[in-house]
Amino acid sequence: MVNLDDYNKERECIYKGEHYLARDNGAIMRLSREGKRTRKLDNEWTFGIKNPENGYMIFASSVRVHQIVATAFHGEAPAPNMVVDHIDTNRCNNRPENLRWVTKLENALNNPITRKKIIFICGSIENFLNNPSLMRFSDSRSSTSWMKTVTKEEAAACKRNLEKWAEEDRNISLGTSTGFNDNIFKNNELHNESLKEDLDEDKPLEEYPGFSSFIGKENSSAIENKTEEFDNPNPEYGESLLTDSLTPNAIQENWITPNSFPLCPNKPHNMEEYFASLADGSVASESTYGKSFVIERAMSPTKEVITIVTHNQNCIKPWGLIQIYEKDNKYVHVNCGTFFDKNTALREITIWQGKEWVGEETIDDLC
């Protein structure tokens, strides 16, 4: 248990019109207002009270302690719409070295649900940061729809910061997690002011429709847990790594078993030709667990990402979703999950195209 009086440095700041002191152990004290009566919580050191709904330490029912500590030790936000990031992802650790100002975009990329959505729409985080216009084709109802306004300059600054912070995380460990790590992409230059809305830190990003089967890129324990996670013989998500496939010009992402991709072009930059070859009934992938046949396909307007619905009758979850994009002159094939119900896969590809899904809930929503 950390003692309120166990600290080395003490700073002061003005936050939302109130005068505070903050210590480098994460404690704060609100000073009484000159010429006014002393309030109940004035002039008393506290770490705050944990909000059970969002995990943040709260003072006086609604003030977030980490924002006061960050302001006192790191100054006010360098640009509008920036928020405070907990580097080790522990929202109770409000020591100043665990806090940093980040943009809304940087903060969003530290959320595993958001990363899944971006990967689903753009193929990878790298694709999005290199070409943020890919998000224009996302569902307007999604909580990531604001990313349609991200500029190339903003994405480039975010990418630099992610790479910088990832390098720092490899060298310095502040807890059991390393916050912005290589699993995001790898990221303090000042940021574009084009973001139009504040991020509500108190609300987790809503689940993207149909993502109950979409296992994320960020979980470093995925390999250890794969026996529990994967109850069917179809290749599913393991550790999020790019690995060689059985096809020379094809790379796998999030597959356990090596696959071949019979229709993958021999030469790079042939996405349109690849898309044309993926006709209904053709073989999209093949492994020791059988063949996965194309049921439906779609291509992004930029011609950079292909999404396929597949069917493999040998699997407990026979319906699958594959996305394809190019990286380093090779075709990356992303396993985006498998489903019990065909309609779940069809819903995912429908939403990915920015269309409205009018079907009913599926059995996968209940699993």
What does this molecule look like?
The protein is α+β, with helices and mostly antiparallel strands and 367 residues long. The protein is built from eight helices and 15 strands. It has helices spanning 65-74, 104-109, 112-122, 125-130, 152-171, 222-229, 271-277, 342-352, and strands at residues 10-15, 18-23, 28-30, 49-50, 57-59, 63-64, 83-86, 99-102, 242-244, 250-253, 283-287, 290-299, 306-311, 319-327, 330-339. The strands form four sheets. The chain has a seven-stranded mixed sheet with strand order 9-10-15-14-13-12-11, with helices on one face. Residues 173-178 and 185-240 have low confidence and may be disordered.
Question: Key features?
Answer:
21% strand; three-stranded antiparallel beta sheet; alpha+beta; single chain; seven-stranded mixed beta sheet; 15 strands; 367 residues
Mind sketching the topology for me?
Layout: E1 10-15, E2 18-23, E3 28-30, E4 49-50, E5 57-59, E6 63-64, H1 65-74, E7 83-86, E8 99-102, H2 104-109, H3 112-122, H4 125-130, H5 152-171, H6 222-229, E9 242-244, E10 250-253, H7 271-277, E11 283-287, E12 290-299, E13 306-311, E14 319-327, E15 330-339, H8 342-352
Parallel strand pairs: 10-15
Antiparallel strand pairs: 1-2, 2-3, 4-5, 5-6, 7-8, 9-10, 11-12, 12-13, 13-14, 14-15
